[in-house]
Amino acid sequence: MVFKVKDYYYKKAKKEQFFARSVYKLEEIDQKYKVLRRNDFVLDLGYSPGSWIQYTSSAIGREGLVVGVDLKEINNKLLNLQNVKLFKKDIFDINSLGDIEVDRQFDVVLSDMAPDTTGIKSVDQIRSLDLVEKVFKILPLFLKKGGNFVIKVFEGHEAQVFLKSNKNSFKELKYFRPKSTRSVSKEFFVIGKGFEA
Which residues touch 136 (CB under 8 Å, ≥6 apart)? Predict the structure, then answer.
């Protein structure tokens, strides 16, 4: 299916100097669920191209820190933000906080990661769920007790089953589809508040 790439949010992002239209998804999530606070310590998984880092950096202020981890080359344009650290690594190969040069767990973990899509719905759902399951598995290493979590999920029955089976990982687990999500997209976001480490 072909969608109109240069839509309202694309143009808005360009005008406001964000690296991607996806920034407005995080903005909507944060405005509705109050995920980010001043001085927070935040981990952004699969941050590239970096619009979520741009938003988070501003939301947490100078005393906060956002650490971005991605397999892609580091976006040097983000390095002029003083409360940002970036790593070119596979998050699933990291075994200790020291591997990303931090000495404590994060207040918030964000993940806008998506698999390489094929256009075959069932395959893409399986790949997305595999990523989601792996992120849930590593959360106890990175996210502190009581922390907040945002992750992108592709719709599908197995994803719903997995999320239901993990709803006790958080005091609250909400599902949300931001207005800025493209109409053809099968994604939604899961927001966890109050991590039960």
Answer: 166, 169
Domains of the chain: 8-195 (3.40.50.150)
- The residue annotated as part of the active site, out of 6, 152, 164, 186, is 152
pLDDT in tens, 14-58: 888 888 889 999 999 999 999 999 999 999 999 999 999 999 999
Q: Residue 103: is it exposed, middle or buried by C-beta count within 10 angstroms (0-12/13-18/19+)?
A: exposed
Euclidean distance between CA atoms 159 and 34, whole angstroms: 24
pLDDT value for 5: 52
Give the whole-angstrom CA distance, residue 67 versus residue 161: 31
The dihedral through the CA atoms of 56, 61, 67, 70 has a sign that is positive
Q: CA angle 188-174-196, nearest 5°?
A: 125
Residue 117, token pair as written in the block: 């899509």
Whether 152 is catalytic is: yes
pLDDT in tens, 104-140: 999 999 999 988 888 888 898 999 999 999 999 999 9
> Which residue type sits at 123?
V
The one-letter amino acid at 117? T
Span 135-162, pLDDT tens digits? 999 999 999 999 999 999 999 999 999 9
Question: What string of DSSP letters covers 82-140?
Answer: TTEEEEES-GGG--SGGGGT-SS-EEEEEE---PPP-S-HHHHHHHHHHHHHHHHHHHH
